[in-house]
Amino acid sequence: xxxxVRNFPLLAAELMPQCEALAAQYEERRSALxxxxxxxxxxxxxxxxxxxxxxxxxxxxxxxxxxxxxxxYTLFYRKPVGRYVLQxxxxxxxxxxxxxxxxxxxREKLGIGNLQTTDDGLFSYEEVECLAxxxxxxCMQVNLEFLYDLTPQTVDGVLAAIRGGTSGVxxxxxxxxxxxxxxxxxxxxxxEGEKMPGDTGVPDPNNAGGLGDRTGLIALDRIVNxxxxxxxxxxxxxxxxxxxxxxxxxxEDRAHAGH
Amino acid sequence: xxxxxxxxxxxxxxDHMLLENKPHLILEGMLxxxxxxxxxxxxxxxxxxxxxxxxxxxQALAQARAAGMVxxxxxxxxxxxxxxxxxxxxxYICGEETGLLNSLEGKRGEPRLKPPFPAIAGLYGMxxxxxxxxTLAYLVPVLQKGWEWFAAVGTERSKGYKIxxxxxxxxxxxxxxIPLGTTVREIIEIAGGLRPxxxxxxxxxxxxxxxxxxxxxxxxxxxxxxxxxxxxxxxSGAFVVFDxxxxxxxxxxxxxxxxxxxxxxQCTPCRxxxxxxxxxxxxxxxxxxxxxxxEMLLRVSSSITGLNLCALGDSIEPFLKSVLVRFPxxxxxxVQGRQVAGVR
Lengths: 259, 344
Ligand SMILES: Cc1cc2nc3c(=O)[nH]c(=O)nc-3n(C[C@H](O)[C@H](O)[C@H](O)COP(=O)(O)O)c2cc1C
Ligand code: SF4
Ligand code: FES
Known about the structure:
Strand order of the largest sheet of chain A: 2-3-1-4-5
Radius of gyration of chain B: 22 Å
Low-confidence stretches of chain B: none
Mean pLDDT of chain B: 96
Number of strands of chain B: 8
Number of strands of chain A: 5
Bound molecules: flavin mononucleotide, iron/sulfur cluster, FE2/S2 (inorganic) cluster
CATH topology of the largest domain in chain A: Glutaredoxin
CATH class of the largest domain in chain A: Alpha Beta
Number of domains of chain A: 3
Strand content of chain A: 5-15%
Strand content of chain B: 5-15%
CATH class of the largest domain in chain B: Alpha Beta
CATH superfamily of the largest domain in chain B: NADH-ubiquinone oxidoreductase 51kDa subunit
Mean pLDDT of chain A: 79
Largest sheet of chain B: 4 strands, parallel
Number of helices of chain B: 14
Largest interface: A-B, 60 and 73 residues
Oligomer: heterodimer
Distance between the termini of chain A: 43 Å
CATH architecture of the largest domain in chain B: 3-Layer(aba) Sandwich
Largest sheet of chain A: 5 strands, mixed
């Protein structure tokens, strides 16, 4: 498989028998959606729009349903990532064991922040939740292979081993050059106090009236003002979800009109 | 029948250990469990991050299939059982049983409204039993040695063994199998005790979702009843120990950030409340708490509890409330303009 050239139809044809076998495992074919996305990601390095469209056709779903589902899961990268995805645990037990210093060391040595990729496309970096290895802090994954007992002093060694090809971890395929981040919805970086671009703090029209509705709770009003990023996040999610639903309805309307 | 191996409760690492080291035990438990309820299709849902575990389990399954333990007409009994291994893809909420079932159906892993419970209408609308890895693994020795063996240890009402995942400020963190009813102090000692020169501050006895317990509970038995009487719960058996060096403000921020991050977003109190708390707590972490914020933390967190589709929403309050009520001075010291010398 030549790495930088993507020929999706060829790949789909090659993987078709595997896809059929996956779908045959279930009482309902739709259950094969996550396995299919894992399969294509393992070959393309990310879940490409072509792969999502293919899955939609293959499982008889609308593209909007597939995209909405895929977007729910953080391990599906919807944009290209680096050859090595470094995921350092920021969970409580690792933090008690010094994870903050390890994360600072990675950020410094790589020169990038959370959810970013180095310019050479080699490393993507993410700070993740508890990895169920809390007895050996700080732990991390490199392309989902576990590394344990990290300290700021061992960070250099990890990066050197990967660069030198002695880490024993296989690189991910890279069929497209990664951009600065693969996050489609950039996680609100509260720790840096950043605001989402374009955020004005206008209340979310889609909000049902809970805590996020500034007319709802006066006590919280002042937080709304200085925490526009928070609203921005929930707004983006509701808006995106609504557009997915719209798309489904439109598809269905079209199907009905055809009858 | 579904085996839940999505382990992601902060501080829990027993299923991960069992998956990588005892895949045959889990599989055998699944086969016995499925046979017990006359299910013809068993699934194991493995957390997406457990790539090695997934590969190990898949291998164990192939061995079992080759040995005629899985498939059609097992050992000539006429009983058919298919086993399917499913990988998650990064979402804590898929550990919640109905979120898991939705995910297994190829949907977003959003929990369902209950009732109906999975045992009535679960996967594809069919009756489904969802059990944890440890639960199913224990089926094997219990059936081998008899229930009397299992029930011989433990307390009056909490019988048997439990794997406790001990982490945090102890010298030998790890998974320890204990009879239920072992005291909190004993568990800390089994895990090597505190580091030299440190004193005990608190234990979170049941994973990220549980409230802290303190000095006065050190000699309490670790069992379901006592932990709930102490205002907490045994939960997943994750046992996180905090010594006197702990920054509880940061710890609370850390856990609240987790829940805010993992909320699936269906319920407004859980989705919005978690993020508010995260923002306010972040102010405290930076020493910029505002007067009245402490009361607000309590008020907002208590108004999240009980109003949600699943237990994630109700997991937001306990730890925060327990440390805020116990160590108000630590929070007070982070209110703007009230910095006290020597605060970590
Ligand atoms: C937010 C949330 C996350 C959960 N995560 C897990 C998990 O990772 N593993 C698990 O076995 N149970 C988890 N559960 C509990 C399951 O819903 C279910 O109760 C459990 O799998 C039943 O197993 P048991 O009765 O054998 O203990 C979670 C529950 C909630 C509310
Ligand atoms: S309580 Fe939170 S995680 Fe659970 S269903 Fe509601 S929004 Fe989702
Ligand atoms: S906190 Fe890092 S593995 Fe659990």
